[in-house]
Write a structure and sequence with these properties.
2 strands, 11% strand, two-stranded antiparallel ribbon, single chain, alpha+beta
């Protein structure tokens, strides 16, 4: 699974173990990368607590070179 799109690039990628893990991963990724979005603000507090401890994997292909939060280039994203 990846967060993002083909045009703007992807900002996170993950392989989940089951279908039941898909929605929680997307909720946490959106809360992490887009914390001011109306979707993220509507999520429960326990998701915010999990996000604070979670490390998101940068995408291996078609990665976004721009941070979605501040617009700065992501030098450490491993994009080649």
């Amino acid at each position: 699974m990846r967060l993002g799109d083909e045009i703007g690039g992807y900002i996170a990628e993950e392989t989940v173990e089951s279908v039941a893990d898909i929605v929680p991963w997307f909720q946490e990724a959106i809360a992490h990368f887009y914390p001011t979005s109306s979707f993220a603000r509507g999520l429960s507090a326990d998701i915010g607590e999990r996000v604070a401890r979670r490390v998101f994997t940068p995408p291996r292909i078609n990665a976004s070179a721009i941070c979605p939060q501040c617009g700065a280039p992501k030098c450490d994203a491993g994009i080649r």
